[in-house]
Amino acid sequence: MNMTMHIRAHVFIAITAFLGYGTQADAQTVDYGSLQSLFGEPITTSATGTPQRASDVATNMTIITADEIRQSGSRSIPQIIGEYVPGIDVLQSSIDSFDVGVRGYQQPYQSRLLVLLDGRQVFIDDYSRTIWDNIPVNIDDIRQIEVVKGASSALFGSNAAGGVINIITYSPLYDKNTVANATLGTQSQISGDATISSKLNGVTGIKISAGGMTGNEFGTENSSFDAPIQKPEHHYVIENSLTQVTPNAQIFTELSYAKSTDNLAFPFYDREGQEAATYSMRAGFSWQTPYGLITDNNYINHANVSFIATGVDPSTVSTYNFTNNLLVSQLSDQFKVGADNTFRAALEFRNKTFNNSNLIQDPLQAPAFNQNVFAASGTWLWQINDKLSLTNALRVDHQTMAQDGTLFADAFYTNNNYDHDINTLSANSGFVYKATDKDTFRATYGRGVQLPSLIQSGYNETLPEGGGIFLDAEGNPALKPTIVENYELDYDRQIPKIFSTARVAVYYESDKDIIGFLNSQTFRLVGGNEYILDQSTNIGNSHGVGFELGLKGSHPSGFRWNGSYSLASVHDSASVASLLNYADSSPEHHFRLSGGYTTGPWELDANGQYMTSTNMFRATSNTSTYAPFPVSGYASLGGRIGYKIDDRFTVALLGTNIAQSTTQENPYPAIERQVFLSLTGKF
After folding, report:
1. I need a surface site. Which of 56, 196, 329, 432 has the fewest CB within 10 A?
2. Which of 409, 371, 375 is nearest to 393 (CA)?
3. 597-612 confidence digits (pLDDT tens)
């Protein structure tokens, strides 16, 4: 992002926050704690903007509570999600690097998932992927994690083609959450996190969280064509504030910084080192007017990323740096017409920039490009009667792109070729029928849109391969967006006799115009040198069918349980199978079982999973060739023993993969047993 854009963004956010101070309104940011106590189950606003019980939402949503997060035995968000949510698969490629797949669609750099932290996008737009350990959040400050499966672009926004993970932290105004944690573990891990929250004059809440981790990478084998192992670590700091300006108006702010070093799976199926530093600034307001609840949300994300990779010669190590910036401005108005109809109209602007100016080579090249996305959306929630509701949503995206950098003289495309537009439509519709006070049926349809990532659209770089041969990696301005359609039937049943709730879900998913990663090769002779043009193309289609069954409950005596089975059967076209192989990259059958017991100061929990075999691709050389890597079905076991010393302090012994010293979960280095001792204090 250039200096002019920085100045404009800062001024825009400052003006927005100032306008929030001068407004008179009647509604506020949601007090999740009060509403959850009122309704007796977790509450969400993310699907429609209206507070709803999780069981009333017209989509397949699972809410992981703060208690479940604590009891899981892990301090990793992907591992916690993978433990509790059927239909979610986690690819762990190192001690702190993960990719999260939904319903059988799993690959390195998973790009079909919208990940939010308190309403702000935290995935990186280079490949539309998430660096999980770079998210600036204290695990002990998370109120709930909302997991949505299926195409949800019209309800949730950009990148929600396959699903959504929405991380919600405690409110600095409504909640008192001052907490600190120190953890020691195997692999020489040391971590610490702390959150301090305070109220000023009863109208302003301020919260600051900070923390970090350092340790050693798993000692299991690293392939010769993988990058040299980096020492894993991360640290972060984040500030949030929420001010009740008047009885009817609030303003909010957020500042964050995070830095991480990882060894992660790459789309070429090798493993590369990465250093990422990110910061964000966010401000906005909510204002209840006679015309509805007006909400304004604005933020800037900046990412500075370095890749460490080997070349054709395994002894050659190269570092590639780039910057990625995102400016987002969202404005919505939510209002009621009569007692039964709630509408939300929203406008959104996104500016994305990518700069690789450090790649000055012979011939000269300094790729830099930007995208603008203008979106309009509308949601209608109709409470037809006390048993039946209908939710409809539409979203239109208009994306423009321009190449602003210096391309090498003989590039396949010119700057003008990259100037293009994409127009897309996404939709969601769902009926929720509460047949009785115990039985809920849900029928939903989703049309999600996955726009091409910045790298796929406009990247431009030549790399010498030796002997007069150059690799010419270029974006493809002719790419079509991937369209994901999801048809689903869900049934929830409360079973009071065993203090449980059961859920059954059946779905069909269709994916059209899937985009491959630098999958097309064209050979050209330029000035006596041979250039191999690598670019992404739309490679074909895929579809999946699946079934999910879950049972969750707790007994007044202190026992709790959560078990599930999921089937995800994916069928790829021939080209998708040969280049991505979604069909074999995730287990077709996945069993989960967790249980726990609380008695006095003791809290005992255990969880186990069994996954059937996979056959994901893995790099076989330093020249981006790969082959299937079969992995047999395996089981894993984790758990936690917690002891509450007094009203403030709890000590806990945590463990993941504790049943065996190592487990080959995927084609990347085997996962080792991890054991931690932690001390948590609440003040």
Report:
1. 196
2. 375
3. 999 999 999 999 999 9
pLDDT tens for 7-26 read 344 433 333 333 333 332 23
Q: Is there a contact between 110 and 99 (Cβ–Cβ < 8 Å)? A: yes
Please name the helix (run of DSSP H) or strand (run of DSSP E) that holds residue 193, with its range, or none.
strand 189-200
pTM to 2 decimal places: 0.92
- As a dihedral over the C-alpha atoms of residue 152, residue 158, residue 161, residue 164, rounded to 10 degrees, the angle is -60
CB of 146 closer than 8 Å to CB of 88: no
Give the span between the Cα atoms of 161 and 49, in whole angstroms: 19
pLDDT reported for residue 550? 97
Residue 513 · residue 531 · CB < 8 Å:
no
| Tokens read off for 385 | 């009667």
Contact present, 142 and 167 (Cβ < 8 Å): yes
Number of Cβ within a 10 Å radius of residue 645: 12
What span, in angstroms and rounded, lies between the C-alpha atoms of 533 and 521? 5
Q: How far apart are CA 31 and CA 28, in angstroms?
A: 8
Residues facing residue 20 across a β-bridge = none
Residue 1 pLDDT exceeds 50: no
Q: Which of 546, 342, 429, 343 is nearest to 153 (CA)?
A: 429
Reduced to 3 states (helix: H, G, I; strand: E, B; else coil), residue 33 is helix
Distance (Å, rounded) from C-alpha 482 to C-alpha 471?
26
For the chain, how far is it from start to end, CA to CA, in angstroms? 41
For domain 3-682, which CATH number applies: 2.40.170.20, 3.20.20.80, 3.40.190.10, 3.30.1490.20?
Answer: 2.40.170.20
535 - beta bridge partners? 520
Report residue 153: phi and psi, to 5°.
Answer: -60, -40
Residue 21: its pLDDT value, please?
34
The stretch 581-589 carries a mean pLDDT of 95
Q: Indicate if the pLDDT at residue 54 is higher than 60.
A: yes
Checking 405-409 for CB contacts under 8 A at 24+ apart, the result is 405/355, 405/356, 405/357, 405/365, 405/366, 405/367, 405/368, 405/369, 405/460, 406/364, 406/365, 406/366, 406/367, 407/365, 407/367, 407/460, 408/361, 408/363, 408/364, 408/365, 408/460, 408/462, 409/363, 409/364
**What is the distance between the alpha carbons of residues 424 and 326, in angstroms, rounded to a whole number?**
20
Q: What is the pLDDT of residue 18?
A: 35
Taking the C-alpha atoms of residue 135 and residue 138, their distance in angstroms, rounded to an integer, is 9
Q: What's CA 338's distance to the chain center, in Å?
A: 36
> What tokens appear for 560 in the block?
């709790």
Among candidate residues 589, 597, 596, 598, the one with its CA nearest the CA of residue 564: 589
